[in-house]
Amino acid sequence: MNDTRAELEVETLLKIVLGLIAVLLVLEIISMAFAIVSMLIPVILLVMAVLIVLWLLDRI
Fold it and tell me: Which residue ranges of the chain lie beneath pLDDT 50?
């Protein structure tokens, strides 16, 4: 009986698993970066509103 299931070496499987883990970590970092940017949007909008009000009042 010829069993051909184990044609991949252990090192190759480890490289595949480590590559998938690296991709997962990169995706987590990107999602964290977008979360930080999304938390800053209200602050940016507030600064823009203050600048518009100051510009309308000729303070800047």
Answer: none
Q: With H, G, I as helix, E, B as strand and everything else as coil, classify residue 30.
A: helix
Q: 29-57 as b/e, with b when 16 or more CB fall inside 10 Å?
A: eeeeeeeeeeeeeeeeeeeeeeeeeeeee
CA 8 to the chain's CA centroid: 32
Could you tell me the CA-to-CA distances from 15 to 5, 6, 21, 24, 53 in Å, in that order? 18, 16, 10, 14, 57
Q: Please name the residue that has the structure tokens 């069993």.
A: 3
pTM: 0.56
